[in-house]
Amino acid sequence: MERKSHWDNVYQHTDPSQVGWYRPHLENSLQFIEEIALEQSAQIIDIGGGCSTLVDDLLDRGFDNVTILDLSSYAIEIAKNRLGNRSSEVTWIEADVTKYTPPPNQYDLWHDRAVFHFLTSPEDRNTYFNAVWQSLKPNGNLIIATFSPEAPPKCSGLDLVRYTPDSLCHEFEEGFHLIQNLQQEHVTPLGVRQPYIYCHFRKNEDTREAA
Q: What element of type H or E holds 13?
């Protein structure tokens, strides 16, 4: 509840265009998605995507099986209001990803910009890994973006874990392989530099048991 209360407070009292992670469009994520060349019927889940405009851009591109998971009801309502009638085309899940049990082999793409790096405990990261592994179809795709080592050690007042491509690969090495990575120099609405790394992983064909 503490984690949920924090993010509800953020979205209740801050204009979504003024939060530190805001971008009008997630260009790098969209680039990866275009290169993956998913069918428009692909099942896509965006973790922590409550106020992100990624859902708008996915709908604009004709994707019709988009799920947004966010633990903040305020973030979800902001997105629904922004989308208007189109919000009915989206599946909305209010949940903490570290407590969420996804359906097995459900998704073609799991997308996460700026959630995983807030998981500072090994237990939460392991739970997250198992959720990704369980929910992705064979050869499914994982796009994940985190702060790089040059970024601040905190965001929204919370500690986080900064990653290099190698250290992020280490987190997902049992079950996934890296397809590509890139860096982004994100600047917040207040002018703070927040360098990110983006990694695109693919689920290995061989099976494993979730830890």
A: helix 2-13
